[in-house]
Amino acid sequence: MAFCFIGGSMKQCSKCKELKEERLFSKDASKPSGFRSECKVCLGSRRRARYNTPEATSLRNSKAYKEKHNRESKVYRSKHQEKTKAQRACSHAGMTCVSLRAHHWSYSEQFWHDIIYMTPQQHTESHIHLVYSKEHMLFATLDGDLLTTKQDHLDYLHRCKSLGPSYEEVSTVRPDYLGTGGYTHKITEVEFINK
Fold first, then answer.
1. Spatial separation of the C-alpha atoms in residues 131 and 141, rounded to whole Å
2. Cα separation of the two ends of the chain
3. What percent of the chain has pLDDT over 70?
4. Domain boundaries defined on the chain
5. In the prediction, which pLDDT does 3 show?
6. Which of 88, 119, 126, 183 has the smallest CB count inside 10 Å?
7. Positive or negative CA dihedral for 63, 67, 70, 72?
8. In sequence order, what E strands does 129-191 have?
9. Mean pLDDT, range 50-60, rounded to an integer
10. Separation of alpha carbons 43 and 16, rounded Å
11. pLDDT in tens, 98-137
12. How far apart are CA 57 and CA 153, in angstroms?
């Protein structure tokens, strides 16, 4: 796994046994170290496996679960209005893709359609190295430096080795204007290479 070493303590994951930076572990105030014992990648794998069990599927289909999920979604949308608006704008403009993630480098309205396409793995990796500043509606480095342009954002993610070398093939917005005023993207034969 490639990651950018910024400094900080190292910790061994209890599942994969790899030595990783502490920032690659979720925080947990109940633990002596202040972090969970398994890394974010292993935790995500375990949660996905549990999510796909028949018992979990049955629970998700229950009325109580759906009501709770709807309440939690409403709270998230009200807390993160700028993100919700940007995601909806891209969705309504036809800028979503099933196999790729549309990453917003800025949540300012003027940049809602200026997105970077990534594989799900690249998107997850990139967010490990980014801190969101709600005040500026931009991301910052782990050192707190704001990434004020799309190029700064991409350069930083390259330095952290979060993006594969061929991501540029779909990283820029290539809209084809439709008579309805919407945008659509033609993404064909893109092969991502992850280091």
1. 6
2. 7
3. 76
4. 80-184
5. 39
6. 88
7. negative
8. 131-133, 138-140, 176-177, 183-184
9. 83
10. 10
11. 667 778 888 888 888 887 877 777 888 888 888 888 899 9
12. 38
Q: What is the pLDDT of residue 191?
A: 37
Residue of 140, 147, 189, 183 lying closest to 166 (CA atoms): 189
Comparing 189 with 67, the larger pLDDT belongs to 67
How far is the C-alpha of 48 from the C-alpha of 122, rounded, in Å? 18
Q: By CB neighbour count within 10 A (0-12 exposed, 13-18 middle, 19+ buried), where does 147 fall? A: buried
- Angle between the 63-79 and 81-92 helix axes, to the nearest 10 degrees? 100
Q: Please tell me whether the overall predicted TM-score, pTM, comes out greater than 0.90 for this model.
A: no
- Distance between CA atoms of residues 143 and 120, nearest Å: 25
Question: Can you tell me the distance from the alpha carbon of 114 to that of 103, in angstroms, rounded to the nearest whole number?
Answer: 9
- Residues 57 and 43: their CA atoms lie apart, in Å, by 19
Our measurement of the distance from residue 39's CA atom to the centroid of its chain's CA atoms, rounded to an integer in Å, reads 16
Mean pLDDT of the chain: 75
Residue 142 near residue 23 (C-beta atoms within 8 A):
yes
Please tell me the predicted confidence (pLDDT) of residue 16. Answer: 93
Task: Work out the number of other CB atoms within 10 angstroms of the CB of residue 101.
Answer: 17
